[in-house]
Amino acid sequence: xxxxxxxxxxxxxxxxxxxxxxxxxxxxxxxxxxxxxxxxxxxxxxxxxxxxxxxxxxxxxxxxxxxxxxxxxxxxxxxxxxxxxxxxxxxxxxxxxxxxxxxxxxxxxxxxxxxxxxxxxxxxxxxxxxxxxxxxxxxxxxxxxxxxxxxxxxxxxxxxxxxxxxxxxxxxxxxxxxxxxxxxxxxxxxxxxxxxxxxxxxxxxxxxxxxxxxxxxxxxxxxxxxxxxxxxxxxxxxxxxxxxxxxxxxxxxxxxxxxxxxxxxxxxxxxxxxxxxxxxxxxxxxxxxxxxxxxxxxxxxxxxxxxxxxxxxxxxxxxxxxxxxxxxxxxxxxxxxxxxxxxxxxxxxxxxxxxxxxxxxxxxxxxxxxxxxxxxxxxxxxxxxxxxxxxxxxxxxxxxxxxxxxxxxxxxxxxxxxxxxxxxxxxxxxxxxxxxxxxxxxxxxxxxxxxxxxxxx
Length: 457
Fold this sequence. Notes:
Layout: H1 2-10, E1 16-21, E2 30-35, E3 50-55, H2 79-110, E4 128-129, H3 132-138, E5 145-149, E6 152-158, E7 164-170, H4 176-186, E8 198-204, E9 207-213, H5 221-224, H6 235-255, E10 259-261, E11 270-272, E12 278-280, E13 287-289, E14 296-297, E15 315-316, H7 319-334, H8 350-360, H9 372-376, H10 378-391, H11 402-409, E16 429-434, E17 442-449, H12 451-454
Parallel strand pairs: 4-8
Antiparallel strand pairs: 1-2, 1-3, 5-6, 6-7, 7-9, 8-9, 10-13, 11-12, 14-15, 16-17
Helix pairs in contact: 6-7, 6-11, 7-10
């Protein structure tokens, strides 16, 4: 009986122990039953045998604890316990977050604010905004003038960090805003080795200035038009300059997010660095065109002598730049301006002379006579003139793209046959006027004939 009682105490699930002693009828017969549930204590046998029942109860007063065996089955956690635990952890996390935030705010208030090294004005490649006084100081009060064009003057300067720059100060009330926006929107957002880099700008009150990288060898015109021996360029240098111009224009036409028409390609807008690498500059007349557009309607603009015949119809494509490129190539090879009033009347217009010599098969006579190296490479120069001829076709659809022109320069493509020497085919007249000499852009005004675009037929 004692063993039966202790067995129930050691068993966690035992609620009662039933001990039956039948040794009175059957010697040495006894039995023990451990009950996990107790439903009734009625003896159905009518007390025919000796039965003892032990019920397990909690004795809170005596605090007695009986040794129990290890429990190896899972115990179910209560839902209320989970809720309490989750709430506690959430509250603890919130307190920690609040403490960290307070510490951060406190440190920010105590530490002096440092300038943001990643501000938009300091991101490499982005134009910097200068104050007018900054540029006035950099240019020594605009004293060293490098040149002057239709939209303003250009001055040499040095920034506070020692970088040499060229500062263009725009002038003219009617065109200043359009020219300024055109340059910042185009050259300010693109980068190419054959495009002059816009370092920064100034838009303060009525002052509009553009800051470019300084090109130590100046513009191309002073190297091909002036007759000073120290400023002469040989055949290889001229050929490379022509290729550089073509690459810069091809990038504008075909490789930018939007197509860009320069609309004022001429030697004055081609700058040379210390290595005589050519860069296209002056985007005051440039137009941004969506990729899905092939032509635009534009008011007449550009420089007489470099303007394509289709300007008279105001229907403009990128081929107007190709035409101007052809004029520049011819000027580089011949060493003279497209309109040279110092020449006899029959030779005053370069394209008219080119047409005549081409029909006579005497293009070699047009090679720069003041340059011995150009004369030495006469046959190669004449072959290059054929590219100029292709670019100067009156029908713009017959002109090559700038990419195709590059392939000709690199020897991968031949110049198209059956080219038309009739470079000027524009019978109409246009009501416009010029300001200053032939370096300036064309503006609306008085009468201009087709011959004023690129010379007479």
